[in-house]
Amino acid sequence: MSLRSRIDPFTLLLLATVALASLLPVQGRAAAVMDVVTNVAIAALFFLHGARLSRAAILAGALHWRLHLTILACTFVLFPLIGLLGRPLSGWLLTPELYVGVLFLCALPSTVQSSIAFTSMAGGNVPAAVCSASLSSLLGVALTPLLMALLVGSAEGAMAHPFTAVGKIMLLLLLPFVAGHLLRPVVGGWVERRRAVLRWTDQGTILLVVYTAFSASVIEGLWRETPVWTLVAVAVVCALLLGIAMPLIMWIARRLGFDRADEISIVFCGSKKSLATGLPMAKVMFASGGLGAIVLPVILYHQIQLIVCAVVARRYAEGTAKAATR
After folding, report:
1. Among 42, 52, 54, 277, which residue has the fewest nearby CB atoms (within 10 Å)?
2. Distance CA 324, CA 89 (A)
3. Which CATH code is given to the segment(s) 6-317?
4. What is the rounded average pLDDT of the residues 175-183?
């Protein structure tokens, strides 16, 4: 694989945004205005996601309940349990805020677009992946804040009350999503014709969230309190998290007797975590002072999962091709 295919260009934009926020953080009245702009962009983002999702995609594969329950269990049970095993790292290898970020990463729903893309690339059950990834994303609106309440509570005032967080997330994310889906007969064609352009809406919104989050954290002293070796430790922890979870998920799928196509869907939908959903949710759930440190594991895991899943998908595809020629 070429270097270009290994490195996600969007990750380079994320790193550039973090650097910009570190050098020129937004503050004062400008920060308040940026916060409003970011909230509007988040609402627009989820409105467009709702308008893109067809009713057929929701219904496709919906009856494959064993597969969906397995993916949801991997996403919302297995990952948080693995995250809890890392509690001794808090205060030693990771700062408390970074460890909260690791737990937040573990509580996030699956991605949609890349889970489906890797499932398709590897020769998996694409309709089931569409249904499972979409269901995971929707359930995550409620499950992620509730899981975080169980994992960390409201220690040090880092997280809003779980029901308050759910209410804010539903207002900012779920309500626009439902509105977009209900208006799909009106705006769906327009959205589909501009899918390539609207991709920049997704990425632009994430960059806005990263810039405002890191600006607030830099002003609060993020880089003074987070040495370079700690950042390396976060990357290592994220790599270990994926390195533990993915083989476990693969083993679970085989032990439960799923065929190869379903196993592929379970591996990719169950091991991936959503950056696009996670950053807006973090903005609602956590106080701005520690937000930059909390979202850092999510950003690092995003790039690591893309690299690893690209390699795994290629190997699955090669195995499928060999099986077909026998």
Report:
1. 54
2. 46
3. 1.20.1530.20
4. 84
